[in-house]
Structures are given as structure tokens and as C-alpha cells.
Amino acid sequence: MAAERSTKKTDEPHLSVSRYVVRPMAAGASEEELAAKVGALGSVLRLDSARGGFLVTLKRKPRSAREGWAALRRRIGAGFSVVPLLESSDGEVRYPTGFISVRLERALSDRELEEVARHLELEVADRSSFAPKQVRLRPRQAAGAYLPEVARRIAASTALPAEAVWLDAESRYRRSSR
User: Fold this and answer.
1) Domains 14-95 and 96-171 share a fold
2) How many Å apart are CA 134 and CA 162, to the nearest integer?
3) Could you tell me the fold of the domain covering 14-95?
4) Domain 96-171, what architecture?
5) Of the four, 69, 90, 100, 127, which is 20 to 30 A from 15 by CA?
6) Looking at the predicted structure, is the pLDDT value of residue 9 above 60?
7) What is the pLDDT of residues 68-117, one digit of tens each?
8) Model's pTM, two decimal places?
């Protein structure tokens, strides 16, 4: 008997307008230091993540994720990367890592990939050893980059033959009971 394909539509995550993953660009930033910078704008919680970082929740909901990102960036300065949290309608959250994953239409040589990345003001973080058409990129000026916009720019680029582009993210999994 052949396995049946699931017809269930997946719940694609969307950008949170009030919650942001904030990671220091250099080691050593404390929760207290970030909380002092955030001030009355919102609250700060340390992420339980191998990558570290913090979750900042804004007290006032901005009109868009871009607007909230800009307000938070102005408040905390260039020493931190800021990316909107990814959340689904059923409450599941994903924590962006600061990288953008790209599945290429065709494999590029390392030299071609570096050249195209440089042209797009990106750097190659790593390449999958199992899937040579899959790479992770990051902006050269990571602290000041609005990652969703960078991902859209990559997807629209004719210089990089991208089949799919998405924000690389960590997920928290819960064990289901049987």
C-alpha cells in the first residue's frame, strides 16, 4: 500500500510586529544592559537557545514589523542585530538566527557564489555539505539590516538563481503525549 500524501496546508509563519529576537554583535552583552537600553519601549527575556540572544516584546504594538524594528534599532544602537520573531496563527514561534537560507535553482561554484554574494552586499555563512544548492547568507552590515527586506531582495535578484529564500530560524519543540 502506497503512503498517502498529506493534504493539510502548513501554517506559514508571519513576522511579529511586537516581538523581536535581539542578539549582541559581540559577546558579553547582559540582559540588564539590553533592558537598560530598551527602557520603557518594552521588556527583555533571555532566550534559552544555543545561539543565545534575547526576546524583546514592545509595550506598544507598532503598525508593522518594519516600524517596530526601526524603533528598537534606534533605541538600542548598532551593537545588536534585531529580527522580528516568526509566529504562526496557532501560537508556534520560531527564532530567526540572523541568517538567510537560500535553495538555488542550480549549484554555483564557491567562486560564483562569493561573487554574487559580494554584489548583493552579503557574505556566505556556510553551504550544506548534503545539498550543494542550499546556502546560508548574511548581510555584510548585519546590525543595520532589516532581514525580511534582505530576503525579499535576494528572492527578486536575477544575479542569484534562487528557487526558495527564507529566514533561517530555530524552533522550540514540545514532546507530544500519546
Assistant:
1) yes
2) 9
3) Alpha-Beta Plaits (3.30.70)
4) 2-Layer Sandwich (3.30)
5) 127
6) no
7) 999 999 999 988 999 999 998 888 899 999 999 999 999 899 999 999 99
8) 0.85
pLDDT tens-digit series, residues 16-71 = 999 999 999 887 778 899 999 999 999 999 998 878 899 999 999 999 999 999 99
Q: Tell me which residue has cell 502506497.
A: 2
Domain residue extents for the chain: 14-95, 96-171
Residue 109: φ, ψ to 5° = -70, 160
Nearest to 38 by CA among 87, 97, 80: 80
| Packed helices 147-156 and 65-76: angle between N→C axes, nearest 10 degrees | 130
Q: How far is the C-alpha of 133 from the C-alpha of 135, rounded, in Å?
A: 7
Quick check: helix, strand or coil at residue 129? coil
β-strands 162-171, 14-24 pairing = unpaired
